[in-house]
Amino acid sequence: MDFVRTLGAGEFVALIKRMFEICLELRIKSKIHGKVVSQFLRMNVKLVKEGNGYLVHFSHCGKWKKEHYERILDAMSQYCAKLILKTENHFLHVEAVHNEDRQWALKRSEGGTNEFPYLKEYLSVKLKPSIIACNLRAFEERLLQEISSFKNLNPEVKFTYFRDSEILYNNRVELDKDYKFCCLVSSAMCKVVQKTLREEFRQECLNLFGVTNLTDLDFAIKSILLPKIHSNFVKMTVQTLRDFEGTEKYF
Q1: Range 9-171 has CATH code 3.30.565.10
Q2: DSSP reduced 3-state for 131
């Protein structure tokens, strides 16, 4: 039997704050053209309605090291949750539970859903205790205060807060501009192909990208450009990019 603790709004926010702090320590700096640049970081908090409450889903999209994953597990050592860690070399799916003796333990699961197939690395944590509806307002007020504080200290980090599919907080960062620029380039190239009077040229362009229509051409061009503007994107297929654009609604 899996024993699940009941958490109040304050304890939920304190746990998410701790995960923010650990993830922010992950910023790996690299030098590009003599300038020190931090790796792009994005953190999401999402509430999903279930029964009379909301499940809390935390995700961090960025580079990972083993010691940081172990610190997340340590922070989670009182709670039941499902965790997914993906790196370029590993895909780990584990479940944190309290067993019959109410002892906290980890169970490794085989397989598992790859929630962000377009990313090379990410961490996903789905907490099993839910926020009851009467605590929702207090939770959101405290969480948004914490996110605002983190954002002010870390303006290069993207924070997004969802309640179901509704976005209640979303700051703008450099990648948003890069993504929009990528879309502009793709759109301009598609218009050239669309307006050409030479059918042979149009067909050659479609064949070059392995597609049969302009809609797929647009996706195919972006699937090449996106991994070039951010190193955490995998080499995308057209379908992977469709999944990305269906999920990442906050750009």
Answers
A1: yes
A2: strand
